[in-house]
Amino acid sequence: xxxxxxxxxxxxxxxxxxxxxxxxxxxxxxxxxxxxxxxxxxxxxxxxxxxxxxxxxxxxxxxxxxxxxxxxxxxxxxxxxxxxxxxxxxxxxxxxxxxxxxxxxxxxxxxxxxxxxxxxxxxxxxxxxxxxxxxxxxxxxxxxxxxxxxxxxxxxxxxxxxxxxxxxxxxxxxxxxxxxxxxxxxxxxxxxxxxxxxxxxxxxxxxxxxxxxxxxxxxxxxxxxxxxxxxxxxxxxxxxxxxxxxxxxxxxxxxxxxxxxxxxxxxxxxxxxxxxxxxxxxxxxxxxxxxxxxxxxxxxxxxxxxxxxxxxxxxxxxxxxxxxxxxxxxxxxxxxxxxxxxxxxxxxxxxxxxxxxxxxxxxxxxxxxxxxxxxxxxxxxxxxxxxxxxxxxxxxxxxxxxxxxxxxxxxxxxxxxxxxxxxxxxxxxxxxxxxxxxxxxxxxxxxxxxxxxxxxxxxxxxxxxxxxxxxxxxxxxxxxxxxxxxxxxxxxxxxxxxxxxxxxxxxxxxxxxxxxxxxxxxxxxxxxxxxxxxx
Length: 535
Fold this sequence. Notes:
The chain is of the alpha/beta class. Helix content is 40%, strand content 9%. A six-stranded mixed sheet has the order 3-2-1-4-9-6, sandwiched between helices. Strand 1, helix 6 and strand 2 (152-157) form a beta-alpha-beta unit. The chain is globular, with a radius of gyration of 27 Å. Residues 39-114, 223-231, 498-518 and 520-535 have low confidence and may be disordered.
């Protein structure tokens, strides 16, 4: 046996190594925790109780530290996001996309569902740019309030707009000052932004010059090549401003720890993409050629095909609008493509164009409460749309983006087009084998020319509104009953726009006969002709 003095010497020699090893392990664990907290939670500070719970569950296999809430650490949430200045923002824009951390903690399905309230009102928020859209704004809000349900909205107002949406939006906004005494139950959170809030001191020309999409191509050069050469200055201005507004708005929603953000126009309405027996759609996707391309490209194609096949299958079991909101459906399918936490953060969906074709009055009034005049609402009045395989009428789709899956700098990497907003995350969608779609309403001629825009003329109105085949549906009709059941007769005042809209046939006199001829007679094909065409 070795003497005690010798054993003590060995302990003294080994002890520093043990201590150093323990310190090293602790530092590694702290580094992982800090890295996970700041890189993956974006707007939440180190002292966020939820950030600590998620990070520690990543390190400890799910053992959440709930006691942190008792220490009042929740008060420190969002300090990073709210204190970010223009210099910090400029430094972030243009940095390369950080690789996906495969070891990052992904909350289980139940945890993702439980973060939202019982009405799932934080699942989908929206950014909306308006320019003299007051006549359709109330319908847009009321519809999405009932069907998403939409509660968080940022409205940007074009500086050239001749009207302000403030009076309309005030009715819908949550009453925090007692001024909205007529609707104390209203629970929307609406922000109105002008150039001051959008650009925050940045010169618009400088913002365009430094835009991410100008690093790969010039939107101005592309527009010079287009057939709308006469419109290029106004198109460039509107497009550049829209890109900056969308990025700023998504950043705001991310700071508020929200999820999906809807990015469409005031004449577009998101809905389930129900399919009908008489629909004319694009041919099925061709089989994958296992002999062409690389293994990587074939793998990517198989992934996209799996994603599209899932959506096409879900179309067969989409719930009725009156039974399920879109947010509830997304949470129910949260472990499937394209809603999975590790899927693409951008969801692209097609648009379906509804023209100014009038239907029989009995069809327009079907399912509408007696107190409601359906001719005041495009979603009720216009039921006839283009075929789902006509890209020249429906055009490119739109997107909604899950900002919780992206870093702040990624929100500024725009493509220059609202049809695939983020250059590295989105794609342009034309096909109708998707779960959702946007109904795009041209409206009546009087509505169409309300907005001062050189592109809005009779030729363009007829070109976009005359369909070779006309189809009908009432997919979105249930929204008005959902709204009426919640607010009753009193709630109908929320949908008023200040003046009555025009009833069928009451077009501007100098073109009324032309419009009636094109939209109410020659373009609508009888059931017999349609059946022969489809056979």
